[in-house]
Specification:
It is built from four helices and no strands. The chain is mainly alpha-helical. The longest helix has 27 residues, at 58-84.
Length: 116
């Protein structure tokens, strides 16, 4: 499996893991709101990475990768907010995977912009 396919698979699996985690959140207003934002950001990262692989130009590909980085950064924010607010501590595996995906895609985007 090549790098792009592996990354696409990891992002998809991450989105599914986030969806499943959100199902375990307490039924409070704040948990529901954060869960909605968390699901949107994590699934958006997966969908936008998939779309980036179908980009019609290098510029479009880079723009979509930028969106993926933004969505992962937002996902990291919501995971942190859940724990720091005392709603629930997110599983360490989700936090670690989010950080790793964000690091990989940030570096990929920086490298691609330098090598235009």
């Amino acid at each position: 499996m090549q790098f792009a396919e592996t990354l696409q698979h990891r992002l998809y699996a991450f989105a599914i893991a986030v969806i499943r985690f959100c199902r375990t959140l307490p039924p409070t207003d704040e948990a529901r709101e954060i869960a909605r934002q968390l699901r949107r950001a994590s699934t958006g990262a997966s969908a936008n990475y998939r779309a980036s692989r179908r980009g019609r130009s290098r510029a479009e590909w880079l723009a979509k990768l930028g969106v993926v980085v933004e969505e992962l950064d937002e996902t990291q924010h919501w995971l942190g907010l859940l724990g720091d607010s005392g709603v629930i501590a997110p599983p360490q595996e989700l936090i670690t995977e989010c950080r790793e995906l964000l690091a990989i895609l940030t570096k990929s985007t920086e490298t691609a912009r330098r090598t235009r």
